[in-house]
Amino acid sequence: MPEEGTSTVRETNRKVADALDTYVRPATFPVAVKFLRQGEPAPPKARRPLADLGRHVTVCQGWAIARRYGWTTVLRAEDMKCPLGALVAGFAAPNAYYEEGNLCAGMYTADKEAGARSEAAVAKFAPGEIDGIVFGPLARADYVPEVVIVYGNAAQVMRLVAAALYKRGGRIASSFAARMDCSDHLVVPLRTDEPQVILPCNGDRIFAGAQDEEMAFTMPWSKVDDIIAGLEGTHRGGIRYPIPSFLTYEPAMPPTYEDLLAMQRAARERQTPNGG
Description:
Elements: H1 6-23, E1 31-36, H2 49-53, H3 59-69, E2 73-75, H4 83-88, H5 96-99, H6 112-120, E3 132-137, E4 147-152, H7 154-164, H8 181-192, E5 196-198, H9 202-208, E6 215-220, H10 224-236, H11 255-271
Antiparallel strand pairs: 1-3, 1-4, 2-3, 4-6, 5-6
């Protein structure tokens, strides 16, 4: 979807948000993510957590504010509270203390050696690769997103997976680590140009309010047209949300219920002339 005038961009974003609302019905706003390169300005009305709210925040708070409050925010290095999120965003460079596994050891891994392997497996922006991250509600965003984040329950995420595979078939590949899901939300879909199924990490739950029943799905903007077409196509094929229950069947009953049912039927037959 090419970038055009602001009104055209906003209208395109609204149509995508409307389609997600129609076919997926997420409980929170889909989030439009844009990465600012050096010298690139933020949207005029975007809030800065430190300057406007007087708070340092985590990266996951940025998209949580967008999906729950409907606010557009821009996060830069000076807004960071979570040092791991700062590393993922490239707002800071990894050092030996981090790379040795000290932040994992005793919490997520049994020792520093395992922790070092976990840290090395996290996809990150290179230091200075981006200058800021914009999070905003997709339906009102006046910029072209690079990634769209949708939170939902497992059935809603399944709906999006089916849509993503509608034209191409196959499977979606995702990986999970229980921590630093900011990498899975932001870096991985941008790097791979592929959608991702996200298991919200511990920090996302503590600091950004992700609930026990929630999962997330992120899609690069380049795949949005195909996913919307997939939502429409799978809807026509009978894949719906809410998922309809099969109700036109005859249920089995406990033996005592069957006994009473037989008595009721016999009583009706005795009351009907000629058994008719």
